[in-house]
C-alpha cells in the first residue's frame, strides 16, 4: 500500500472514497463529516442515517453526492455526536474504513485525522494508531491511501508516525 500525505481539503479529493469520521447515528453535524455533507448535499446524511446504527469498529458506504469522490466510507469514532474519542476508537474506525474499502474494491481512498478535531483524541496518539492500522492492512485494496488534513499540526503527527512506525 502506498501512503501519501496532503495538506488539502478532503471535500476536494477525486478518489474512490473519502472517509468520514462519523458517529453511530449517521448524523454529519460537525467537523469533516459536516463539511462533506455541506459540499456533497443532504442526500449523503439521509443515506448514512438510514444505515444507522453503525457500531464503532464498523463502517458503511454511501454515495458522495456532489463531491469529486465517488463514495463516502462512514467510520464511527463515537457513538453519539459530541462525545470524546479514545485512541482505541480511532484504531477501530481506521480498521473498519480499510476493510470497507477492501470489500468494495476501492483502489484509492482519502483518510482525515480521525478523532483529532471535535473528538478531542490526542493527535500524536491518533496518528500512530492510524498508521499502525494502515501498516497492518494486508489486503490488495486500497492500494493507495491519502492521509489528508488542512491542519499542519495533524499532518506533522501523521508524518512523524509514518517515519517512526515499522512497515
Give structural notes.
This protein is of the alpha/beta class and 167 residues long. It has five helices and six strands; from the N terminus they run ββααββαβαβα. It has helices spanning 31-40, 42-50, 87-104, 123-136, 152-164, and strands at residues 2-7, 17-23, 60-63, 71-78, 108-111, 144-149. Strand 5 (108-111), helix 4 (123-136) and strand 6 (144-149) form a beta-alpha-beta unit. Helix 1 packs across helix 2 (42-50), helix 3 runs parallel beside helix 4 (123-136) and helix 4 packs across helix 5 (152-164).
In short:
The protein has one domain (2-164): Leucine Aminopeptidase, subunit E, domain 1 (3-Layer(aba) Sandwich).
Count of separate DSSP helical elements: 5
The helix/strand order is: EEHHEEHEHEH
> What is the total number of structural domains?
1
Q: CATH topology, what is it called?
A: Leucine Aminopeptidase, subunit E, domain 1
Low-confidence runs: none
**Count of strand segments:** 6
The proportion of residues forming helix, as a percent range, comes to 25-40%
Largest sheet, spatial ordering of strands: 1-6-5-2-4-3
Shape estimate: globular
Structural topology:
Layout: E1 2-7, E2 17-23, H1 31-40, H2 42-50, E3 60-63, E4 71-78, H3 87-104, E5 108-111, H4 123-136, E6 144-149, H5 152-164
Helix pairs in contact: 1-2, 3-4, 4-5
Q: Any key phrases for this structure?
A:
167 residues; alpha/beta; Leucine Aminopeptidase, subunit E, domain 1; 6-stranded mixed beta sheet; 5 helices; globular
Amino acid at each position: 500500500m502506498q501512503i501519501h500525505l496532503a495538506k488539502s481539503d478532503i471535500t476536494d479529493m477525486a478518489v474512490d472514497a473519502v472517509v468520514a469520521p462519523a458517529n453511530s447515528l449517521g448524523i454529519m453535524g460537525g467537523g469533516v463529516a459536516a463539511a462533506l455533507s455541506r459540499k456533497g448535499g443532504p442526500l449523503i446524511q439521509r443515506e448514512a442515517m438510514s444505515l444507522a446504527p453503525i457500531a464503532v469498529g464498523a463502517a458503511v458506504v454511501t454515495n458522495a453526492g456532489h463531491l469529486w469522490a465517488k463514495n463516502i466510507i462512514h467510520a464511527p469514532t463515537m457513538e453519539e455526536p459530541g462525545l470524546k474519542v479514545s485512541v482505541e476508537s480511532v484504531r477501530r474506525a481506521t480498521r473498519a474504513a480499510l476493510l470497507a474499502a477492501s470489500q468494495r474494491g476501492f483502489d484509492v481512498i482519502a483518510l482525515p485525522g480521525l478523532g483529532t478535531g471535535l473528538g478531542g483524541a490526542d493527535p500524536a496518539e491518533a496518528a500512530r494508531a492510524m498508521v499502525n492500522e494502515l501498516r497492518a492492512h494486508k489486503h490488495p485494496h486500497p492500494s493507495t491511501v491519502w492521509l489528508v488534513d488542512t491542519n499542519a499540526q495533524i499532518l506533522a503527527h501523521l508524518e512523524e508516525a509514518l517515519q517512526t512506525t515499522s512497515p
